Backbone:
């Protein structure tokens, strides 16, 4: 049980890093509170596995400290850290039964035999492994093996946090849901901090209370799934989360009005602080852009309409810029002329990729 | 599944049959032919039935006694070789570097003994171990140990074993190294997190993952050591006395030295069957250990 603090943490795989590019992990300050369910989300190669391995002690950071509660564990070895980790590919000890696998971490720590046996039974029933306790771990299915890896972490009563490194990669799709809900249940039952690394936004958003989005070795946003969806603080988050991702359109701002090409878009807030050299973009999620018949909003050209199952997404062009919009039920578009209606509450302005707050216009908005 | 019958397939298989027939089956049949006949030269052969086999397998006959003692020597030799080379090969493989430029260096150094022709190996050691001019023999003698592989049977055995260990341990080590390389890092990381000791890592991860390559290593090393001929022939010529006369050396003496074709043919057939039988036992036992473990639990 512990709060995990990352204090000015950075890591480079090269020796003597100088520029920011040398760092696989740029400076991070973050606190994972006790008992939280976190997801570490980002594309492959963004440094999330490095961060995970630093927390578990498999990698020693180039700079900064890792604290468990108030104890500095930066120099402690993995086995001294009370951390459990579940890897991408299931790791089980082939020659042992499931029972022996679960008992292994306790046996290595010289826990008395009767206490070990009791603890193994407890964890097995929690993970629904009781039926297979006496079978060899090597010929079970991948999801069972992942449960065993997880179980080896859970048997240790002192375990402070469990780290998951894309644990569902090799699991059949229909079992992914099951295993993920098992994880949620265990999290609720045991009050253990869980950090879940993934590049799959669905996994991250359904598992975690808080999602940490990483990009290019740095944390770009930390927030609840709703926050990430409704108020992405970086265009990368907007683009990476959601399917399809946020529309990011280069634009020009004058006071409380945005211009995309020749199209004028009134805004709720004024942006007077933007300087000329910055790359200004307007972001809005397709969910907040509705396609309407011609003449009822901003004029656009419809390129095609994709049916993605639960919704229809129109691919349109506005002043030559491609854009995705949702198509409300019952709307039918004749020809390729149509218009868009934007929800002004969900229009965000970004300067060089970062969200700009803007200032209230006091009802002046058009 | 439906089976497709295609007679054209025979055209692909027949050449193989033909080559195997000429290279293996026909010579073997010649040996079988010799083994049931006796000859007194002049290419005249007489039917002898299973006479040679009876004599060979009867320890009270001179041939039988000779065969039995050679067989025992060979079995002892193979056992010693396996007992030394397999554990040593594992230890060497475990201590080899896992990455960096030293890997290539190690692999090349390890492969060197394997590339040397067998009679050259014998010659190298024949000179190397000589008490008067050989570096090894000279040093050992200077250390006050009375060592002479041409005169003392124990010294001869030790020399041959050391030579074989030098020549072939790399093979076991390279096979084990390949097995070790195939273990994903996550296993080692998981073991560290589980607090496993070095020995537990070896027992629970490395050894089980190496089992398949070890089976191959054991089979190859058994077959090779059981058939060893060239190196001891060059080094000791089977001596001193008969101390290092292994089955193969005995066989060659019998066939080409004494020209006892019938006896030699019978002996090679029995020799061949012993190798086949022992390999079969090794293979079945080691693969059954696998299957057994799976079955018990299923």
Residues:
């Amino acid at each position: 049980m512990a709060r995990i603090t990352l204090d000015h943490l950075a890591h480079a795989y090269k020796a003597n890093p100088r520029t920011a590019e040398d760092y696989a992990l740029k400076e991070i300050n973050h606190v994972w509170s006790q008992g939280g369910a976190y997801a570490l989300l980002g594309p492959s190669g963004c440094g999330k596995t490095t961060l995970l391995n630093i927390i578990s002690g498999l990698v020693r950071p180039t700079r900064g400290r890792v604290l468990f509660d108030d104890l500095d564990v930066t120099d402690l070895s993995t086995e001294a850290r009370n951390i459990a980790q579940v890897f991408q590919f299931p790791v089980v000890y082939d020659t042992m039964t499931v029972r022996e696998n679960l008992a292994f971490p306790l046996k290595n720590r010289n826990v008395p035999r009767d206490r070990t046996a009791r603890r193994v039974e407890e964890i097995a029933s929690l993970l629904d492994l009781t039926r297979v306790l006496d079978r060899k771990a090597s010929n079970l299915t991948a999801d069972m093996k992942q449960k065993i890896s997880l179980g080896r972490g859970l048997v240790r009563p002192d375990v402070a946090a469990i780290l998951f490194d894309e644990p569902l990669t090799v699991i059949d799709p229909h079992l992914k849901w099951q295993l993920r809900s098992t994880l949620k249940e265990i999290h609720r039952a045991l009050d253990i901090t869980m950090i879940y690394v993934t590049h799959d936004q669905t996994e991250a958003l359904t598992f975690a209370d808080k999602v940490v989005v990483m990009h290019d070795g740095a944390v770009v946003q930390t927030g609840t799934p709703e926050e990430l969806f409704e108020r992405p603080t970086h265009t990368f988050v907007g683009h990476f989360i959601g399917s399809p991702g946020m529309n990011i359109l280069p634009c020009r701002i004058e006071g409380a009005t945005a211009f995309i090409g020749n199209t004028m878009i009134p805004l709720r807030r004024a942006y007077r602080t933007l300087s000329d050299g910055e790359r200004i973009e307007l972001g809005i999620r397709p969910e907040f852009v509705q396609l309407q018949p011609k003449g009822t909003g901003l004029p656009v050209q419809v390129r095609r309409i994709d049916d993605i199952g639960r919704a229809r997404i129109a691919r349109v062009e506005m002043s030559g810029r491609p854009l995705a919009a949702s198509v409300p039920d019952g709307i039918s578009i004749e020809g390729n002329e149509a218009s868009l209606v934007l929800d002004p509450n969900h229009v965000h302005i970004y300067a060089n990729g970062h969200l700009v707050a803007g200032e209230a216009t006091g009802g002046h908005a058009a | 599944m439906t089976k497709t019958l295609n007679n054209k397939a025979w055209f692909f298989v027949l050449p193989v049959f033909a080559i195997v027939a000429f290279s293996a089956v026909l010579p073997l049949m010649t040996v079988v032919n010799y083994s049931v006949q006796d000859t007194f030269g002049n290419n005249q052969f007489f039917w002898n039935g299973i006479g040679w086999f009876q004599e060979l397998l009867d320890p009270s006959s001179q041939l039988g006694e000779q065969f039995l003692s050679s067989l025992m020597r060979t079995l002892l030799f193979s056992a010693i070789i396996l007992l030394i080379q397999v554990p040593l090969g594992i230890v060497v493989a475990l201590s080899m570097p896992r990455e960096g430029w030293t890997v290539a260096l190690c692999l090349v150094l390890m492969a060197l003994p394997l590339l040397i022709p067998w009679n050259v190996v014998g010659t190298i050691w024949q000179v190397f171990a000589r008490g008067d001019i050989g570096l090894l023999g000279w040093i050992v003698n200077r250390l006050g140990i009375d060592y002479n592989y041409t005169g003392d049977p124990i010294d001869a055995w030790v020399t041959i074993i050391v030579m074989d260990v030098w020549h072939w341990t790399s093979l076991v080590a390279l096979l084990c190294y390949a097995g070790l390389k195939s273990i994903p890092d996550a296993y080692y990381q998981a073991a560290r997190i589980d607090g496993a000791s070095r020995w537990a890592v070896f027992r629970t991860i490395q050894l089980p993952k190496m089992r398949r390559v070890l089976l191959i290593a054991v089979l190859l090393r058994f077959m090779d050591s059981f058939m060893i001929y060239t190196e001891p022939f060059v080094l000791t010529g089977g001596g001193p006395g008969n101390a290092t006369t292994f089955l193969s050396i005995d066989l060659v003496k019998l066939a080409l030295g004494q020209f006892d074709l019938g006896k030699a043919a019978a002996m090679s057939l029995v020799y061949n069957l012993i190798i086949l039988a022992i390999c079969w036992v090794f293979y079945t036992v080691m693969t059954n250990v696998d299957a057994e473990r799976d079955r018990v639990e299923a």
Notes: The mean pLDDT of chain A is 85. The first strand of chain A starts at residue 4 and ends at 11. Chain A touches chain B through 30 residues (CB under 8 Å). The two ends of chain A are 53 Å apart (CA to CA).
